[in-house]
């Protein structure tokens, strides 16, 4: 006898360090993402998705809990998901779902052993009933001996030692070319190909007697940019968009940012790294195609919600910066696609969405109740065509900065007290700090940011939706 199946499945796909503008559907003709582009055509593509923290662990814990990193005190990758905090994955498990994961979780990064099959006990505590937690890129390349399912797989193929040696020598301080050279592995052994196959195999074999939630988390296109040669060859001589850079602007940045700038990197090297990044993105797109094909073969397309997003972006040479954990657009702005039953396809939304908002949204889509007290706000009504707007502004925070952004302006408050304000409609590359020109706008957004942080820390983020307008105008009046 089968269980009663009256709930949809959820396929939640996340990759790592994927900047928002490296998708074909976002107008990026220089990178091939046909499967993600088809997903965008089937559903809604969001042009204003943002991470709450442009760093792996804070972003992923925030997503799992629906709580702001500012409330949880999440500032770096040393944090561990508090076992007392309810998670999105537990919510699905407790409502009769099989809850699967394959790939990177980063909910306890300090524990370097994921278990032979990626099923260490804390994965069950977080809510996964069928976990295959894989090693992150640098994590996988850090040990001569297997520390999880992926490195065990490499060991079985007699490839672990060569992979380890390759990663030992990937240091951009010694050579940028080493940092973004091709993978030492054959295509089929590359980790994102492993994750894609395992995700497709799970969908192909999961029994249909219960609904399921599958969290597929790719480890790329995170640095180092090391795609398999088969993919790298496709981009070897392709033109790339130039990096945003202005020497006068960069010299005015806070010291903590100037210290991170790659001052010796050449334009040719930036172009080469971007080619490798594009190749890594195409690897992931092919794997998503494999997963979607498995879904179609099982006849589950019409009853499955599909989400695609990333935990944060990648600077990729803009302002002579790489990686993430920075307040600028390539770092905090993320891709976001959603499709499934009841979602009209071919739509583009410029609504402001925070990564944590996916927590209650997927619950709403599945007909599950969401606990009170979350900082996240569901945008299921927007997906169903009931509204066109969501938040009035988004917040993203890190150890060195706090950032507030609406559709036109972005305010950055650095730890040293420096304020940056960018008019993104007229200056999308964030060259011109207009804080000294737009005094009233700056004061208002500083006040809004203060209120939003207070709301997050007190656990009452509804103040963001309504009351901040009157309060900030009051503050501005008294500051004049």
Question: What would your notes on this structure say?
Answer:
The protein is α/β, with parallel strands linked by helices. A hairpin with a 4-residue loop joins strand 12 and strand 13. Helix 10 packs parallel to helix 14. The C terminus is likely disordered.
Q: Please outline the major beta sheet.
A: 9 strands, mixed
Going by helix content, strand content and strand pairing, the class is alpha/beta
Strand percentage lies at 15-25%
Task: Please report the total strand number as a whole number.
Answer: 13
Mean residue pLDDT: 92
What's the helix count? Answer: 19
The low-confidence parts are 463-480
Helical proportion, percent range? 25-40%
What integer value in Å does the Rg equal?
Answer: 22 Å
Distance between the termini: 72 Å
Shape descriptor reads globular
Characteristic terms for this protein:
globular, single chain, 9-stranded mixed β-sheet, 4-stranded antiparallel β-sheet, disordered C terminus, 35% helix, alpha/beta, 480 residues
Task: Describe the structure concisely.
This protein is an alpha/beta fold. 35% of the residues lie in helices and 15% in strands.
Question: Topology of this protein?
Answer:
Layout: E1 9-16, H1 34-42, E2 44-50, H2 56-65, H3 69-72, H4 88-93, E3 98-103, H5 121-125, E4 130-133, H6 137-140, H7 149-156, H8 160-168, H9 176-179, H10 191-205, E5 212-221, H11 229-235, H12 247-250, H13 255-258, H14 267-297, E6 304-310, H15 329-332, E7 333-339, E8 347-349, E9 353-354, H16 358-365, H17 380-383, E10 394-397, E11 401-405, E12 409-414, E13 419-423, H18 439-458, H19 468-479
Parallel strand pairs: 1-5, 1-6, 2-8, 2-9, 3-4, 3-5
Antiparallel strand pairs: 2-7, 6-7, 10-11, 11-12, 12-13
């Amino acid at each position: 006898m089968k269980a009663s199946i009256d709930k949809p499945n959820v396929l939640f796909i996340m990759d790592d360090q994927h900047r928002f503008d490296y998708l074909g559907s976002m107008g990026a003709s220089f990178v091939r993402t046909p499967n993600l582009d088809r997903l965008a055509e089937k559903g809604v593509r969001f042009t204003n998705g943002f991470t709450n923290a442009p760093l792996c662990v804070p972003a992923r814990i925030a997503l799992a809990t629906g709580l702001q990193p500012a409330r949880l005190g999440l500032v770096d990758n040393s944090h561990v998901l508090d076992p007392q905090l309810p998670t999105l994955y537990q919510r699905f498990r407790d409502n009769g779902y099989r809850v699967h994961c394959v790939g990177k979780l980063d909910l306890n990064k300090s524990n370097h052993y994921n278990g032979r099959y990626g099923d260490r006990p804390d994965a069950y505590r977080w809510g996964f009933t069928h976990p295959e937690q894989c090693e992150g890129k640098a994590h996988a390349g850090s040990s001569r001996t297997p520390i999880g399912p992926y490195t065990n797989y490499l060991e079985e193929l007699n490839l672990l030692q060569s992979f380890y040696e390759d990663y030992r020598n990937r240091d951009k301080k010694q050579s940028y070319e080493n940092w973004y050279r091709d993978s030492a592995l054959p295509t089929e052994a590359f980790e994102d190909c492993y994750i894609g196959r395992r995700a497709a195999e799970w969908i192909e074999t999961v029994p249909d007697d219960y609904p399921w939630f599958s969290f597929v988390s790719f480890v790329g296109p995170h640095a180092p940019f090391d795609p398999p040669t088969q993919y790298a060859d496709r981009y070897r001589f392709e033109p790339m968009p130039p990096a945003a850079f202005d020497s006068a602007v960069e010299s005015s940045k806070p010291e903590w940012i100037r210290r991170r700038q790659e001052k010796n990197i050449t334009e040719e090297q930036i172009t080469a790294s971007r080619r490798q990044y594009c190749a890594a993105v195409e690897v992931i797109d092919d794997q998503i195609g494999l997963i979607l094909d498995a879904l179609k073969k099982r006849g589950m397309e019409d009853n499955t919600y599909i989400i695609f997003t990333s935990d944060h972006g990648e600077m990729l040479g803009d302002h002579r910066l790489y990686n993430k954990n920075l307040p600028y657009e390539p770092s905090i702005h993320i891709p976001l696609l959603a499709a499934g039953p009841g979602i009209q396809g071919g739509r583009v939304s410029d609504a402001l969405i925070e990564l944590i908002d996916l927590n209650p949204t997927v619950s709403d889509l599945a007909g599950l109740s969401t606990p009170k007290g979350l900082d996240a706000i569901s945008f299921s009504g927007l997906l169903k065509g009931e509204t066109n707007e969501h938040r009035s502004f988004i917040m993203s925070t890190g150890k060195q900065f706090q950032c507030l952004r609406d559709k036109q302006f972005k305010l950055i408050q650095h730890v040293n007290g420096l304020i940056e304000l960018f008019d993104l409609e007229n200056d999308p590359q964030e060259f011109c700090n207009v804080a000294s020109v737009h005094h009233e706008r700056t004061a208002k957004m500083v006040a809004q940011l203060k209120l939003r942080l207070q709301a997050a820390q007190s656990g009452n983020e509804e103040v963001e939706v309504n009351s901040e307008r009157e309060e900030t105008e009051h503050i501005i009046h008294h500051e004049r």
